[in-house]
């Protein structure tokens, strides 16, 4: 089989640069183009080296992993060993994902040796297609993970105590929610009605909380003032607040991530 060295150099550089770029994005590290190029060139040199007979000693898996960590260390320009280790693992995972995509495309086109398991005649078009697909997939994964982290930071465990009943719920801090009861000026925690089953509210303690939504339509919620409301900020930080619990007929989260809404300013 004929190998064109210039083609190998260009392809390896493109792939290495791309993988280092998305690794930096995943680590939330500012991409330094200069050092990313240097790291990609370093990987390119290694890729060329393994083509020669002496390269068989450098193609073992442990050595490949060491090269990956060195490339990441150069690209992120950081001496934090934990960050380099995390980046190296991410780089290796992305490499395997890209390799799997290339193998899939090659198999679909019949450009694969059955004996030696080597891809042949893999075009630039297919390489670019694989890079684009991988970038889209990884971008969506990264955005999803970041959104999940942001959402989790805004969800708190809340304990509601009333008479002899106690309920534990998961409440989302809605920063756009400023709902307060107009007479007492107490903040309102909106809770799904199903979560309050078992709590019997005497008629003389029921309250009506009027509200207005964005489209300027008015409505009302029914609630009560519990004996105690505890919000768990974290394991060692629990705050007690005075608030009104209002029942809501609808589901607040489509996937059940939380079942109550905290109004803005209720915690800080």
Automatic annotation (TrEMBL):
**Gene Ontology CC annotations of this record:** plasma membrane
Q: What is its EC number?
A: 3.4.23.-
Q: Give the residue spans that cross the bilayer.
A: 6-23, 35-54, 60-76, 83-107, 127-145
Keywords assigned by UniProt, alphabetized: Aspartyl protease, Cell membrane, Hydrolase, Membrane, Protease, Sporulation, Transmembrane, Transmembrane helix
**Gene Ontology terms: biological process:** asexual sporulation; proteolysis; sporulation resulting in formation of a cellular spore
Active site positions: 174
Query: What top-level class of enzyme does the UniProt entry assign?
Result: hydrolase
Give one Pfam hit by family name: Peptidase_U4
Please state where this protein is localized.
Answer: Cell membrane
Molecular function GO terms recorded:
aspartic-type endopeptidase activity
* Role noted for this protein: Probable aspartic protease that is responsible for the proteolytic cleavage of the RNA polymerase sigma E factor (SigE/spoIIGB) to yield the active peptide in the mother cell during sporulation. Responds to a signal from the forespore that is triggered by the extracellular signal protein SpoIIR.
Q: Which family does this protein fall into? A: Belongs to the peptidase U4 family.
**Matching NCBIfam families, A to Z?**
spore_II_GA
Indicate what this protein is called per its UniProt record.
Sporulation sigma-E factor-processing peptidase
Q: Which organism is it from?
A: Clostridium tepidiprofundi DSM 19306
């Amino acid at each position: 089989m004929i190998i064109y060295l210039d083609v190998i150099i260009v392809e390896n550089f493109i792939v290495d640069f791309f993988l280092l770029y998305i690794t930096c994005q995943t680590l939330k590290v500012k991409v330094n183009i200069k050092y990313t190029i240097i790291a990609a060139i370093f990987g390119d040199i290694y890729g060329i080296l393994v083509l020669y007979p002496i390269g068989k000693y450098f193609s073992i898996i442990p050595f490949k992993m060491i090269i990956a960590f060195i490339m990441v260390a150069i690209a992120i320009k950081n001496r934090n060993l934990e960050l380099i280790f995390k980046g190296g693992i991410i780089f290796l995972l992305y490499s395997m994902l890209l390799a799997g995509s290339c193998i899939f495309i090659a198999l679909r086109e019949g450009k694969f040796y059955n004996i030696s398991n080597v891809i042949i005649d893999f075009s630039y078009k297919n390489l670019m297609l694989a890079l684009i697909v991988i970038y889209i997939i990884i971008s969506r994964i990264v955005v999803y993970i970041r959104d999940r982290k942001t959402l989790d930071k805004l969800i708190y465990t809340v304990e509601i105590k009333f008479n002899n009943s106690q309920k534990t719920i998961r409440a989302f801090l809605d920063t756009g929610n400023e709902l307060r009861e107009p007479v007492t000026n107490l903040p309102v925690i909106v809770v799904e009605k199903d979560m309050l089953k078992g709590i019997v509210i005497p008629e003389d303690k029921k309250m009506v909380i009027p509200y207005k939504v964005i489209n300027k339509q008015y409505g009302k919620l029914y609630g009560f003032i519990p004996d105690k409301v505890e919000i768990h900020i974290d394991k060692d930080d629990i705050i007690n607040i005075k608030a009104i619990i209002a029942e809501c007929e609808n589901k607040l989260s489509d996937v059940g991530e939380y079942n109550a809404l905290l109004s803005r300013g209720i915690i800080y």
